[in-house]
Design brief:
Structural class: mainly alpha
Number of strands: 0
Helix content: over 70%
Order of helices and strands: HHHHHHHHHHHHHH
Low-confidence stretches: 1-17
CATH architecture of the largest domain: Alpha Horseshoe
Mean pLDDT: 91
CATH topology of the largest domain: Serine Threonine Protein Phosphatase 5, Tetratricopeptide repeat
Shape: elongated
Number of helices: 14
Largest sheet: none
Amino acid sequence: MRLPGIALLACSVVGCPPPVRVHPRCPELNDQAVGQLQRGDLDQAQLLTEQCLAYCPGFANCLNDQGLIAEQRGDVAAAKQRFAEALHSDQENMFAYNNLGRMYLKEGHPGRARDQFERALKVYPEFADALFDLALACRQLKDDACAEKSLRKLLIAQPQHAQALQALGSLYISQKKYQDAAEPLEDASRVDPNLRGIWQALGAVYVELGKIDEAKQCFRLCLDHEADNLGCAESLSLLNRTYPPAQETPSSE
């Protein structure tokens, strides 16, 4: 529950921007800009956001879009500036918090990134992108408990999130908890069989669990999806030499 009195007091101390008056055209132009951004037409997206800001100076969503445009153009500094401007205008814009965090992560500052992801999650606790990115930051900070907690929260909200399942499995692999790793990796392979790296990771887990037949099949599937994956080719070759077909072990139950 929000307490207006406290919010006003905070503004009197740190200073809050005046509320942005939203012209009816601004949401329309913002939606059009997002569409062009998704198509990869950065120039048209930029023109639409500029038109949006002409109607509504300080409109946070359009500033956030400009940050995404700058990011796609490789200008991280400009992207950070736009995301910060969006947050100055709207201190509850979860997308701008998360995008600013991603920029810090790109720059190799996982601690700063973590702060931004956590702020995004205060606005919306089940924001999938922020939960996933927070897990990445926590991994870089070697805080496995934080990473696992974030991924599990994400999977409560979206049980079929293949990348989160893969990331959780990879976390358990790093901890040598191969039995724990198997389940999320198996789930990820069912949700998205084309997910890059999933068959190699699952194959490696099966090797550790002594499930040689299953491991071979995973490495074969890996090569079906990623023909240039030398790691899968070498692993399959090694298993075939070590466990020729006539000597393959029975599948474990």
